[in-house]
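Explain this protein:
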Amino acid sequence: MVEYLYLPRVRRLTLILAIILAATIGSMASSSAAYDIWYLSLEKSKLNPPSYVFGIVWPILYIFMMLSSYLTYKKVFSIFIIQLFFNAVWSWLFFRFQMPLVALLDIYLLIAINIFILNLMYKENKLAFFLFIPYVMWISFASYLNLFIVINN
């Protein structure tokens, strides 16, 4: 009985730690993008933001993700952990392994998973739903940038 009472706390803490871990692992692969010869040589969309924008946007998105997953942990726990995996893997596929096509497939899967998560959040908690929308919009924009690179390089 006592274990059952602590399960929600453990799941919420697990989500928070998983988000921090995904952010750390993902940033390890992309932290040198501004100086990476391969990345700098790619033809990029005119809509591609300067590198410093990513350093501003991602921490905000991770905070929103943390709050929205915390508010809806009962509904999204397992699928949210899965989406964090694909989120972190994208940076490695794209920047470290220089596989933009595979990274594009990863981000499309990530978008599909997150649309499913949005649906769960909408039913569970409207605030969580609205906090999660910027992340889904950002990865959708990132998929456009990724697609542009695949097509033009």
Summary: The chain has six helices and no strands. The mean pLDDT is 90. Residues 2-30 form the longest helix (29 residues).
